[in-house]
Amino acid sequence: MSQLSVTKRVIIMALVFYARVSSKGQNLDRQLARANEVKADKIFTDKQSGKDLNRPGLERMFGYIREGDIVEVVSLDRLSRDYNDIQHLVQRLKDKKVKLIVDDLPQTNTGNELVDQFMLDMMVNLMGFVAQNERTKILERQRQGIAEAKRKGVYKGRPKKYAAQSKNREGRLVYEKVYDAITSGNYKSKAQLAREVGLSRQQLYRIINQINDQNK
What are the start-end ranges of the E strands in the chain? Predict the structure, then answer.
């Protein structure tokens, strides 16, 4: 390979950083600080649960990365908390010939690329299992807590974000807009209304059901 080809390859290689928190109320500051520290060429973010892969930032990242790039995350659970999803994402990176760096996993540099990949695969499998096992335990504790609260008659359910009395200001404003539109009939279609207030159709229909129940 010529020196020119080698130089060109180095130039186009990118360090891509992916950061995620589980909700809009959380902040990405710690992860973004790490991205700045390693001088990431491109940063993709999501404020969304890691329970599934339907995340816009994640998909934009996969659309951006190319062979030879590096994807870095602070921890494996930023990619996902589901073991099978982690395996799927790691395989997608491999298929694109993109290297994965996980900050809280030890990095192996034996000089043998096959050995290094084998060691990384072992650690990813182990930590992926640990992440899902912890999530399963959390869900089980939640289930037990809800069951006990119901037994005692004190379970109130999860507070609704989109409701007239919601503690979430944004949620209250969205609810009020939907309420005004539905009760006045001042909207062209439910699909358009959902787009205007930034909701999915399912979320809009749940709010409409609340309104209908209240107005019975």
Answer: 15-21, 42-47, 70-73, 99-102
Low-confidence ranges of the chain (pLDDT < 70): 1-12, 106-119, 128-129, 131, 135, 154-158, 215-216
Q: At what angle do helices 201-214 and 169-184 cross, to 10 degrees?
A: 70
Torsion angle defined by CA atoms of residues 6, 118, 93 and 43, in that order, rounded to the nearest 10 degrees = -80
Residue 212 has what pLDDT? 80
Which of the following is catalytic: 2, 5, 22, 23? 22
Q: Is residue 75 flagged as an active site residue?
A: no
Angle at 80 (CA atoms; ends 57, 113), nearest 5 degrees: 95
CA distance 15 to 148: 48
Predicted TM-score (pTM) of the model is 0.57
Query: Sign of dihedral through CA atoms 144, 146, 150, 153?
Result: positive
